[in-house]
Amino acid sequence: MDTSIFTDKAKKPGDAELAAALGRTYNLWLEIENMVLANMPSAKKEWYFFSAKYGWGFRVKDTKRAIIYLGPRKKLFIVTMVFGQKAYDKILASPVDTFIKEELKASKVYPEGRVIRTPVKTKPILKDIKQLIDIKMAK
In this structure, which CATH number among 3.90.1150, 1.10.10, 1.20.120, 3.40.50 belongs to the domain 15-137? Predict the structure, then answer.
C-alpha cells in the first residue's frame, strides 16, 4: 500500500489517468483538494516524483510547507499529513476518530512532527480529514 500506481518518471499523471485509477474515490480526492483550497486559495497543487520505488505523489502546499499529500493507489488513495506538537495536542482533544488518534500516537516523531497516513476508500472519512485540515491550517 506504500507505492503509487504511477511509477513511470517520464509520465506525470493527468486527470484522466487519475480518474480511471481511482474510480469512485476520484471525487473524494477532488473534495479534499477543494477543502484545502477553500482554507488557502493561494495554495499550489503539484505532482512530484518521489523515487523509482514510490512513484508519483501529489501535494497541496503553500509557500513554506506541504499541507497535504495524496498518494494514488488502485481504487483508493492515501492522505498523508504531518503535525507539530501543538496540532498533535489539538487533534487528541478533538472529535477526530479514535483510529486516527491512535495512529498519530503510534507515529514516529520526526523533527517536522508526527505523520499520519489515512487510506481513503469511502466518503465518511472526509469528516475527519476536514478536521485534520482545519487543525493543520489554524493560525
Answer: 3.90.1150
Q: Is the dihedral of CA 32, 34, 35, 40 positive or negative?
A: positive
28, three cell numbers: 473524494
Helix/strand/coil percent split, the chain, to 5:
40, 30, 30
Q: Are strands 109-110 and 55-61 parallel, antiparallel or unpaired?
A: unpaired
How far is residue 88's CA from residue 102's CA, in Å, rounded to a whole number?
A: 11
Angle of helix 85-93 relative to helix 98-106, nearest 10 degrees, comes to 150
Whether the full predicted model's pTM is greater than 0.85, yes or no, is yes
Taking only the tens place, the pLDDT of each residue in 61-93 is: 988 889 999 999 999 999 999 999 999 999 999
End-to-end CA distance of the chain: 33
The tens digit of pLDDT for each residue in 18-54 reads 999 999 999 999 999 999 999 888 999 999 998 888 8
